[in-house]
Amino acid sequence: MSPSRTMSQAGADLNQAIGRGDRWLILINADPDALASAMALRRIMAYRAETVGIAHVNEVKRPDNLAMMRFLRIPSVPFEPGLCAAYNRFAMVDSQPHHHPAFAGRHYSIVIDHHPVLPEQPCKAEYCDIRPDYGSVSSIMAEYLRGLRIRPGKLLATALVYGIKTDTQSFERHFIEADVRAFSALTKHADMVLVRKIISSEYHRRWLKFFSKAFRKMRFVGVRGLFVYMDVLESPDILVMLADFFTRVHGLSWNMLAAVVKGMVVVVFRGDGIGRNMGHMAAKLFGDIGSAGGHRGAARAEIPLEKLGGKPVEEFLYKRLTGHRLPTKEQCPVEFPAAPHAPRTARAAAGQQKSALAK
Ligand SMILES: [Mn+2]
Description:
Layout: H1 3-18, E1 23-28, H2 32-45, E2 51-56, H3 63-71, E3 77-78, E4 89-93, E5 110-113, E6 127-130, H4 137-147, H5 154-167, H6 177-187, H7 192-199, H8 208-217, E7 219-221, E8 225-232, H9 237-246, E9 254-261, E10 264-271, H10 278-286, E11 291-294, E12 298-304, H11 313-322, H12 346-358
Parallel strand pairs: 1-2, 1-4, 2-3, 4-5, 5-6, 8-9
Antiparallel strand pairs: 7-8, 9-10, 10-12, 11-12
Helix pairs in contact: 1-4, 2-4, 2-5, 3-7, 4-5, 4-6, 5-6, 5-7
Bound molecules: manganese (II) ion.
Manganese (II) ion binds next to loops.
């Protein structure tokens, strides 16, 4: 059987499972692949179903995911059990019913996924298509669209492109040829300007104040290291976001960012995966007083605040990291000298200001 014959057969089988006149709710754990796949299934269902809703069981927080929902007009709503009354059938993409507690308590007629199937959790759906070799469910959905001869519109194609890109980390992580084929076919219909816009939505406006603080408090360690203590934070997510940002600076190969979060000293490590092993570093520095570990590129330590015996946190961490006392503000290696070159005259400065305004 030719691949396209298989694809159209799979499409026909899926249509069979969708039936006619039902009210479908597609449940997802929202990430780009799940959002795109839900949009594709909704498109396929649109011909036969009475209504199709999409609901996500997690809170969508990442700015790129929010940008994707907004720019690609994905109508997914936060899931709450009361929602189910309006639907008589349930489907799931990019997950299996045992993956999230909020998925429990109802029967799913359609499950399309690419996560491995656990022998103790067999898929009970009437229509079950799980392909663990695929890099993304978006690629599977693209095949269904092709088999059913549905040409994806611009927004759907863009969503699927972003779904594949995210799950395969732009083809740096696991993928198969089918992912490449789907990707290349979809880019003909997708809006790459929108893809770029979504990719570059990396930060929330409310995060900018943390950058400002991190830039003020950063201290270089050795030749290629960076240490930043962020005082008290509400969530370690901010540390992760900042640590990931600093990995993108040429000339830095590792960083260690810390803060007190809910009575715990949380330390996040990021490395380039080539030099120092962050997991070893975390364990060596803090393994004796807290939980510490990770892998080569990323690690974390959590130390109960009382283990510091009242010592100032920043000093304590710096001492453990470098063996030295925390330099005073004047000695802080990132404080730039006030006048790196010959001091400019007031007149020259004024002239420069004028020409800048004239531009
Ligand atoms: Mn996925």
